[in-house]
Amino acid sequence: MTEPSLHSSGAELLEVHRLRLVEAPAPHVSSEDRLALDRAWEEAVRANPSFFDGPVVASAGLTWEGPHSVVLAWVRTTYRHYALRRVPGAASWLPSLFVAIVQPTEDGRLLAGRMSPTTASPGRWQLPGGSVEPPDDHEPLDVAALRRHAARELVEETGIDTAPDDLTLWGVTRGENGSIGVLFLAPCQPAALLRKRFAALVSAETALGREPELDRIAFVRSPAELADLGGALVDYLEPVVRRYAEERSGAMSDPNRSLDDGG
């Protein structure tokens, strides 16, 4: 089954209204890949000592099961496993699974943040969000858990404290390398408030001797404005901005339509 999507730079933005998550077994890692993995991880840590090998959830594939409804398979692993992406020919590498928050302003722009120098993608512009962590034993990984994780990422990266129940499933992005992002739409906020909260967060982190995950934020209204940010862009950012601009335009022309009604 094929569902509508937006494509840009190898990334797809899938219109998903229902999402079911299913745990799958992790792929077998050969002894040859294991040795290459350990070497690649050691090199990555030497280049960026802030890397840590904590638990993380990876994507094991996405399939459609109905109109605007997908099943997302996931596996438990650690950040070390992602170093296999650096190994040419490795057969057991896994794409990432992450959440991202579409945070609009009251005047129709979207918040984008630039990754700080100590992150895995320094200088890259993207939405607030991050990799998904595995659930505790006997706890499910479902949309509610992803929503809670998204709310936590939003406050940790921008200072905006939004209740998980106020986040709406907005879509799913699939990168050229198979990475899967689950997108949540946050309530509109004044741009001045977003700037104030972010400045307070940066000040607090700096006072504690820590570098914030985002070192800058900006607001964009259309894909054309992304070029003004300067620097690399995550592959899903352009289709997200484009879809939001189109939905906002449609909502403004139709008073009976809202931005979170699935389009």
How is this structure best described in words?
This protein is an alpha+beta fold and 263 residues long. The protein has one domain: Nucleoside Triphosphate Pyrophosphohydrolase (Alpha-Beta Complex). The chain is 25% helix and 28% strand. It contains four helices and twelve strands, in the order E-E-E-H-E-E-E-E-E-E-H-E-E-H-E-H. It has helices at 31-47, 143-158, 191-207, 237-253, and strands spanning 5-8, 11-14, 18-23, 55-66, 69-78, 97-102, 110-115, 125-126, 129-131, 168-174, 180-185, 214-220. The strands form three sheets. It has a six-stranded mixed beta sheet, sandwiched between helices. A three-stranded mixed beta sheet has the order 3-5-4, with no helix packed on it. Strands 8-7-12 form a three-stranded antiparallel beta sheet. A hairpin with a 2-residue loop joins strand 1 (5-8) and strand 2 (11-14). The mean pLDDT is 90.
List the SSEs and their pairings.
Elements: E1 5-8, E2 11-14, E3 18-23, H1 31-47, E4 55-66, E5 69-78, E6 97-102, E7 110-115, E8 125-126, E9 129-131, H2 143-158, E10 168-174, E11 180-185, H3 191-207, E12 214-220, H4 237-253
Parallel strand pairs: 3-5, 6-11
Antiparallel strand pairs: 1-2, 2-10, 4-5, 6-9, 7-8, 7-12, 10-11
